[in-house]
Amino acid sequence: MQHVYDLAIIGGGINGCGLARDAAGRGFSVLLCEMGDLASGTSSRSTKLIHGGLRYLEHFDFRLVREALTEREVMWAIAPHIVRPMRFVLPYQQGLRPAWMLRVGLFMYDHLGGRQRLPGTTSLDLAADAAGAALKPGIFSTAFEYSDCWVDDARLVVLNAVDAARRGADIRVRTRVLGAARTGDHWSLTVQEAGAAGTETMATRVLVNAAGPWVANVADLLASGTGHKVRLVQGSHIVVPKLFAHDRAYLFQNPDGRVVFAIPYEHDFTLIGTTDRDFVGNPGAATISGGEVDYLCATASACFASPVRRSDIVWSYCGVRPLYDDGASAAQAASREYVLEMDEAPGQPPLLAIIGGKITTYRRLAEAVVERLGPHLPERQGLAAGWTGRQPLPGGDFDVGGFDTLAGALARDYAFLDAGNVRRLAHAYGKEAWRVLGEATIAADLGRSFGASLTEAEVRYLITQEWARSADDVAWRRSKLGLRLTAAEMAALDAWMREVIASPQSSRPVG
User: Fold this and answer.
1) Which site among 151, 168, 382, 467 is 20 to 30 Å from 333 CA-CA?
2) Which ranges of 314-382 would DSSP assign to H, the alpha helix?
C-alpha cells in the first residue's frame, strides 16, 4: 500500500524548510522537494539581516514590523551561532528625512517589539566616534545607532532542513515535481531526482506551494486555477574589500528615498545593498544589472571617504523576491507581508500557496500555515504550537552570550586549528562542530585540504548531513569560502565531491 504523507512541500527555501521543521516537530509526516539545492534561490541572496525593517514604518506596516522585531531575539536565542546582534549607524543628512522623523521612527523601533537583550538607540557625534572616521568629511556630523541582528541566511535554511529531517521529514534535494493531480482524498505527485532515468509517484493529503519566485510557475504546473497576485522584485548586492575596521554596519539614506546598507562581511569585506526593481522573466537567470552596480557604487562613494569603484567588486549577487502585488507604485513600497492563498473544495485535498514574507518572520509564517491547514490534517502526537521558538536549531544549544566560551572549548579540543578557523567553524556549526571534526588530533586527521581552511572532514559532513552535492553548495551556501577559494581549488573540490558521491560507500544524507 502506498505511503501517504500528511504534508508535501514544493520548495526548499526558508519558508519551505521552516514549515517542514515545524510540521515534523508536531508529528506530521512531511515530504519536501527542492528542484535544486536548499536555499539556492532567494533565501541565500538576502541582505543577511534579522530585522524589523525600519523603512517599513514609513509605509505604516506596523503589524509586520512588530512581528519582525519580536522575532529578532527569538532567532538569536535558537541559533546564536549563525545569528548575532549588530549595531547599525544611521547618519543624519540635511535635506533628507528630518532628524525628528528619524527619532520618532527609532523610538517606535525600540518599543514595538518587546526588546529585552538588544540595546536601544543612542545618538553619535561622528567627529568623536570611530564610526565617523570612514565617512566622507563635511557631509555627516551626527548619527543614530540602533540594534538589529545579522544572520547567515543560507545556513538558516539548511539547519531548518536538518532539524526537520532529524524529526522524520523526507527532504529531497535536486528533485523536481513534474506534475500533481487530485486523486480522491489525496494529491498524487510525479517527481524526478536529477540524473534519475525514471520518475516516482508520491501521495500526500495536503500540498504546499512554497516555491518562492517560482510560485506562479508551480501553480500553472498544478493547474490549480488560482491566479496568484505576485510581484517579482529584484534586489542586488555587491561585496568589496572592507571599507571600515569596526564591527558596526551603516544604513544610508539616498535622495531618491531608498536606503542602502553597508555591512561587515566575512571579516575582510563589506556587503553593500540592496536595490529594488521590478523583475520579469526566469528568476533563476536573474543577474545584477549594470545600472544596479552603478547605483550601489555611487551611493557608497557618496558616503564613504574611500570611493567604491566597479573594479573593487569581488562578488555580486541578486535575489528575486516574490512579493504580494498590492498595487504599490514603486517596487520598494510593495508590502513584505506574507499572504496564504488556499485552493480547496469539499471532499478534495487542499493546495496552499505562500506569497511574500521575510526571512525574519519565516517561523511565524510556518506557524500560520500549519494553523490554516489544521482542519485538513490528521491528529498526531507531537510538540505543541510555538515549539520552534523554544527549541534550538542544530548546533545552537548554548546561551546567546556563550559563543566565546564555545569557541574557546573548540580551540582547546582541537589545538592544531588556527584561531580564524576555530571561529569560522564555531559560527557555522555551533556545537555540531565537534561532529564535523570528530576524533582528529592533528590537521592530517581531517584529510585533504581544499584551500581556505576547508578540509575533507568538513566536506564529508556537508555531503552526509547537509545534502551538499557540488562545490557551489559548499563554497557559496554552506559557507562563503567561495570568496577565498581559487577557480582551480573550486574545480578540484567539485571533482572530488562527484567521485565521493558516486562511490557506493558514500552514505546518504540525514533523513
Assistant:
1) 151
2) 362-373
